[in-house]
Amino acid sequence: RFLIKGGLAGAAVYVAYDQGLLGSGTEGAEALKKAQETLPPAIQEWTNYLGLELPPTPKFDFSISGSWNKGVHTVMSALSVAPSRACEYTAEGWKYLKDLVK
Length: 102
Description:
The chain is mainly α.
């Protein structure tokens, strides 16, 4: 059982590497575009072969690179204000402690 699972995991990693998913961002974007063009006809062919009927796939207007860039900007802006916020919070903490001691 362990060997079968390990073999499947290894094969999945190999296929991902072979298709360019583990490469640069442009290679990953090209692989994603290729998968989006290839998968729907292949799935349709299999469903016709098996006699199944699947609901239509939803269309998403979602940009992975836009979301990634927004996340990077959010993290970087938080890191840029972290030192000043740390000073503010430290000053507030000392003030609170002094008020408790009085």
